[in-house]
């Protein structure tokens, strides 16, 4: 059964009550779900969010940031760097097991140390 049809039936039988099912549609934001290093997280309300560079992205086009919740689109700069050198370094940082907060896309001392550790070099 199509989930949208199921939802319509549920809502029609319940009247004007919020249904118990929460829709998890990320189709408008594939840039978030496919972002290298994005970590899926379960939010307090039971929905799914993604953490990228310490910011939580929601499937409604909003994200948490140091300045509060703001809108985002797949045209934002952090998604335009996908496939460029900075993103390759960030992917390598994720593969090296570096903490999300250190995955900045820059090959600096922390990345170099993580690489040496992974290779067993002191």
Low-confidence stretches: 17-22
Total DSSP helices: 5
Q: How would you state the average pLDDT, rounded?
A: 80
Please write the string of helix (H) and strand (E) elements: HHEEEEEHHH
Largest sheet: 3 strands, antiparallel
Give the end-to-end Cα distance, rounded to a whole number of Å. Answer: 57 Å
Please count the beta strands (DSSP E, at least 2 residues each): 5
Going across the biggest sheet, name each strand in turn.
1-2-3
**β-strand amount:** 15-25%
Q: What would you call the shape?
A: elongated
SS class:
alpha+beta
Count of structural domains: 2
Percent of residues in helices? 25-40%
Radius of gyration: 19 Å
Write up what this structure looks like.
The strands form 2 sheets. The chain has a 3-stranded antiparallel sheet with strand order 1-2-3, with no helix packed on it. It has helices at 3-14, 30-33, 77-80, 85-95, 109-119; strands spanning 39-42, 48-52, 55-57, 62-65, 68-71. The radius of gyration is 19 Å and the shape is elongated. The chain is of the alpha+beta class and 122 residues long. A hairpin with a 5-residue loop joins strand 1 (39-42) and strand 2 (48-52). It has 5 helices and 5 strands. The chain has 2 domains: 1-82, no CATH class; 83-122, no CATH class. Mean pLDDT is 80; it is low at 17-22.
Structural topology:
Layout: H1 3-14, H2 30-33, E1 39-42, E2 48-52, E3 55-57, E4 62-65, E5 68-71, H3 77-80, H4 85-95, H5 109-119
Q: Which descriptors apply to this entry?
A:
122 residues; two-stranded antiparallel ribbon; 5 helices
Quick description:
With 122 residues, the protein is of the alpha+beta class.
């Amino acid at each position: 059964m199509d989930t949208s049809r199921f939802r319509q039936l549920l809502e029609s039988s319940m009247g004007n009550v919020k249904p118990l099912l929460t829709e998890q549609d990320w189709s408008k934001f594939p840039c978030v779900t496919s972002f290298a290093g994005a970590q899926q997280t379960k939010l307090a309300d039971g929905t799914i969010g993604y953490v990228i560079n310490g910011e939580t992205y929601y499937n409604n086009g909003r994200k948490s940031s140091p300045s509060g919740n703001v809108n985002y689109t797949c045209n934002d700069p952090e998604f335009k760097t996908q496939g460029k050198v900075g993103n390759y370094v960030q992917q390598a940082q994720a593969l090296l097991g570096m903490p999300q907060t250190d995955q900045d896309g820059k090959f600096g001392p922390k990345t170099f140390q993580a690489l040496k550790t992974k290779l067993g070099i002191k």
